[in-house]
């Protein structure tokens, strides 16, 4: 639950009773869960809406990094870094300590140490900083034995046209906030403080807009994110957060697959509403499945019309993407992108598709492979970037640093 800077300064007991007084809490969150994914929007009362949203903060410390189960803020920057070749484990630990200190301050609306624009830190706007490790970091740190088995580049699919400029990286920063200025400031501070250790490989900026608690639309016009895993539920704990079973250090962490998927909006324009609906399996207008009337109606993939033809075409995106088994589910937390087109083109838009799951191989890959094999939507979408990261657990309390569980477990020889 986001908190304002002023609230943070109050003792915890005051905050809790104040929230109870305002009528939020678990019961209200449950109501939100019934309507949609339940990021917790219903816990906000009209009075809370009156406050300056630019002052809201998301706690930095905790068992998980923020930015996974946080209701997605409006703006994002994903920054991929490569480690300089001569680095060793101690350099990486040093970098992570710098990022921990910077993120702990900035996310709470305080300037970073030696912040050259401290005024820009004053509007945290639900800033979250999420750090991920790419496969090579484990090699550079001499920790290959502690790398999760699924942490590797995805196999290449026939639909892919990957641009190296958007593919792979040793380190990820996912920086989200409701205000783009806040995102830019955090990107700059965190990047320049470690510039002697890393090189920026890519920066991918994105946005999503929807009233709080409602599902966003992507740039094809579709309601995107309806079927998802609600934070705070047993499903989220089971499917998204790692339990330390395979790698003890990873308990409370997860994975993040980032796919940059370009949309061919010029030819998508040629499709009428019916063509668009049968491609997706849902109506663009309401987001309802072709077998229902409202967004959160369950699609009925077995329903046939009077000629015996399935109402939701088996080739449609949702029919192909729907999990065949419970373990094929994951959190989707993507953003739109809309960049400058190349000369002679009208648009350069798409989705920064993000999937988080405990195990990429077991949960994400079967779905991705099925879509690569066939998905009616593929005619208008092309993956042009791809990267996979492990998201280490959070920093439980001040004094710790991001990734400490990994490096401590290496020091203990496990
Ligand atoms: C530009 C590319 C894509 C677009 C525009 C897109 C759009 C959508 C939309 C509009 C929906 C229906 C609403 C919803 O439940 O969110 C949906 C559902 C879904 N998509 Fe995608 N998607 C894209 C790529 C992908 C990829 C790469 C994957 C996974 C590998 C994926 C997995 C899913 C899943 C699992 C669902 C829910 C299916 C269900 O159970 O009903 N999508 N997508």
Percent strand: 15-25%
Radius of gyration: 21 Å
Which kinds of small molecule does this entry bind, naming each only once? protoporphyrin IX containing FE
What is the share of helical residues?
Answer: 25-40%
Q: Categorize the overall geometry.
A: globular
Question: Order of SSEs, N→C?
Answer: EHHHHEEHEHEHEEEHEHHHEEEHEH
List segments where confidence is low: pLDDT < 50 over at least 5 consecutive residues: 4-34, 40-45
**Biggest sheet features:** 5 strands, antiparallel
**Counted beta strands:** 13
Number of helices: 13
On the 0 to 100 scale, the average pLDDT is 90
End-to-end distance: 35 Å
Helix-strand makeup class:
alpha+beta
What's the helix and strand layout?
Elements: E1 3-4, H1 5-8, H2 12-21, H3 26-35, H4 46-50, E2 56-57, E3 75-83, H5 89-106, E4 128-133, H6 135-140, E5 171-177, H7 180-192, E6 198-207, E7 216-217, E8 223-224, H8 234-239, E9 254-263, H9 265-268, H10 273-280, H11 317-321, E10 331-332, E11 335-339, E12 348-357, H12 360-373, E13 381-391, H13 404-411
Antiparallel strand pairs: 1-2, 3-5, 3-6, 4-5, 7-8, 9-12, 9-13, 10-12, 11-12
The structure holds protoporphyrin IX containing FE.
């Amino acid at each position: 639950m986001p908190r304002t800077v002023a609230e943070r300064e109050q003792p915890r007991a005051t905050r809790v009773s104040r929230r109870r007084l305002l009528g939020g809490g678990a019961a209200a969150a449950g109501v939100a869960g019934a309507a949609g994914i339940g990021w917790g929007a219903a816990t906000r009362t009209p009075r809370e809406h009156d406050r300056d949203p630019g002052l809201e903060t998301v706690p930095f410390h905790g068992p998980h990094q923020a930015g996974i189960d946080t209701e997605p803020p409006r703006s994002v920057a994903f920054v991929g870094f490569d480690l300089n070749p001569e680095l060793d484990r101690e350099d990486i630990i040093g970098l992570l300590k710098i990022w921990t200190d910077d993120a702990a301050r900035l996310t709470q609306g305080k300037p970073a140490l030696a912040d050259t624009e401290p005024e820009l830190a004053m509007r945290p706007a639900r800033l979250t900083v999420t750090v991920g490790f790419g496969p090579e970091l484990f090699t550079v740190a001499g920790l290959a034995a502690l790398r999760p088995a699924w942490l590797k580049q995805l196999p290449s699919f026939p639909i892919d046209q990957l641009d190296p400029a958007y593919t792979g990286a040793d380190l990820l920063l996912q920086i989200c906030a409701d205000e783009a200025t806040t995102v830019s400031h955090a990107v700059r501070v965190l990047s320049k403080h470690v510039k002697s250790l890393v090189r920026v490989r890519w920066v991918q900026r994105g946005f999503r807009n929807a009233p709080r608690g409602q599902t966003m639309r992507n740039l094809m016009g579709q309601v995107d994110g309806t079927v998802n895993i609600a934070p705070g539920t047993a499903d989220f704990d089971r499917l998204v957060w790692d339990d330390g079973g395979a790698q003890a250090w990873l308990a409370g962490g997860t994975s993040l697959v980032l796919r940059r998927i370009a949309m061919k909006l010029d030819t998508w324009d040629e499709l009428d509403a019916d063509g668009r609906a049968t491609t997706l399996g849902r109506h663009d207008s309401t987001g309802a499945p072709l077998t229902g009337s409202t967004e959160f109606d369950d699609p009925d993939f077995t329903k046939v019309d009077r000629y015996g033809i399935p109402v939701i075409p088996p080739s449609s995106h949702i029919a192909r993407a729907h999990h065949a088994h419970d373990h094929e589910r994951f959190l989707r937390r993507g953003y739109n992108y809309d960049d400058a087109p190349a000369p002679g083109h009208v648009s350069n838009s798409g989705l920064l598709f993000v999937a988080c799951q405990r195990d990429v191989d077991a949960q994400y890959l079967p779905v991705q492979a099925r879509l690569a094999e066939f998905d009616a939507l593929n005619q208008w979408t092309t993956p042009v970037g791809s990267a996979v990261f492990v998201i280490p657990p959070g920093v439980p309390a001040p004094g710790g640093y991001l990734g400490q569980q990994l490096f401590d477990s290496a020091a203990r020889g496990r």
